[in-house]
Amino acid sequence: MLFLSWLPAYNTPFDPISHAREDEFCIRGSIFEQEEGDIITSGFEVEIPNPGLGLIGLGRSERYAVLSEKLASDNMPVELARGRVIAVPSELGQQTLTLRFQCVPPDEDVVLKTAANDLRTGEIDGYDPYGHPDDREKFETYDALFHSRDASDDPMSALAGRLELWRWDRKTLEIERVSMVSGGDTHIIDSDGFESTLQVTLRNPPRARTRLRVVASWTQEAKGVQSLPAVNMPVDTYSWQDLMQKLPQPGTSVGENTGWHVAESEITYFNQHSILDSFDAGMEKYALNDEKVIGCQVLMQAATVGVQIRLGYDFQQQREELLTISMPVAQQEVLGDDKNETADVIHLAPLNLDPSTPLWTFEDPTTLEPMQYEIGDEVIYNGHKWRCIVAHTASTIFSYSSFVQVEKRAAINPISARFFDSTRGTRAVRYAIRMLQRRVYVRARCLEISFQCEWSAARSMKCGDFCRIYNRKIGTVQAKISSIKLVAAGAKRYAEVTLLAYLGDGSLAPVPEAGEEQTGLITYKLSATPASQPTNASALRAQVHFVDVINAYAEQKSAALFEQDPVAVIESLPTRIELDVDPIREEDLLTRNLTVTCKPIWIPRDAVIGS
């Protein structure tokens, strides 16, 4: 018989003596465990005599209970499940009512979110695409670029690159991860136990080849000041005052739409020549044709001016890379329609931002309660990354004294002209491959086998375990359990079990050859065209320019000699510094295509179909 005993706390250890009692008499009951998307949930329900309104007294709706039993073959009572009442019964006016329990701890959302966040690897150093697979695993099974900044609100996203499911243990109420492929106990069911209830259904198997496109968009940027001055030279001139007054100021554009501007300009030194130069001048202007004047000369003093000009650059180029992944699957030929399927397209988060650090907010968007920041918490505020150094409750104004600014980590160097075939991009490629692998594996579990068997044979089963059965029509099948329901209705007890079997063709996992790479058990080859670079952004900081001095001292002196008005001649030939720069080329959107071709991915051979 079933025993339902109320617990003082959800984690109270099961006591075969004190808990094997009927706090509520169980007329009938059932226990279920099943996959719901990416999580395995469990619960139980019992039908009891209606105890009246006292059942819904204060606190009763949140109480935990443990369900146990003692079969004739058991030496002592066995715990079956424990859980929390999840709904107030609606049959309070009937002779009996049903209590429904969910096998989760009181703070299940926090527990699940914490477990998921432990799997999220942000923008940290240490990734080596050619390192040991164990060292690469945490990088290649999660990439924040593929998810929203508030991805922590969705614990399921942490498993998007893993062949795993979340599972709540129905006895301990702890969260765990179970593999979709391996692990777990193996239960053997004799054919006599399910022959009459066997149902076999072929679900939607994956196509022979599945495709996925990933789009990365970013603005390639190079902004800064050159490491060396473009002009750093002495200039000898008579028009030194004019030269110093008209020296270009910081911010002045060099040419028109060249991408270059004056970042710094200064006169580093100034030395007047100690020897004056004399020039013969016309009598008409300088002596007013005075007959007493025999001749006129003009004395001019030149100077050496030290000029230094450093240029700045501003380059922006819109870029886009389209990564197309093609993944064939090594499965047996099965019936299916030949309709074309629309390939999924994933747009990555901006590459120049830190995608894994949450934005600062003063209140929880779900509860509207003030945020509690602990030491070490990191946030993005006003475009910068901050780390909490003083635990505090947030107010509507950002507390600069409680945070310290730290380096913001982005997925790409702003000057980079390529992404997917870079070190960081390799991580994104491999995560995308694993995401596609998971999607293929979910569909590859396409043979659904359901049957009923004895309660005692299924009592220890759980989702994630293997079950091996034999039937003359389907042969031997060993596959993962996707759902189980234990039903006790009076003296009748039975279990409903569903398996999901892979239909692999029996081939082994491919081994990488020359020019191929591997992530997990997937072997692939990346093909890419060179990145178009109309401007070499990394070379702008050290780019050399042509500099020429126009109308310097020698040219001015030569032109003024033997002229009637040497002053006017020199004034008409002011000294100028001419700077010839190569314009920084910026094109419209530059699109680059890359292709990943996988070898047929291995899937288990849980069953054999065909002749």
TrEMBL record:
Native source species: Brucella tritici
GO cellular component assignments: extracellular region
One Pfam entry name: CBM_5_12
Residue stretches making up the Chitin-binding type-3 domain: 372-394
InterPro entries: CBM5/12
Name of the protein described by the UniProt record: Chitin-binding type-3 domain-containing protein
Superkingdom of the organism of origin: Bacteria
GO MF term set: carbohydrate binding; hydrolase activity, hydrolyzing O-glycosyl compounds
A GO BP annotation: carbohydrate metabolic process
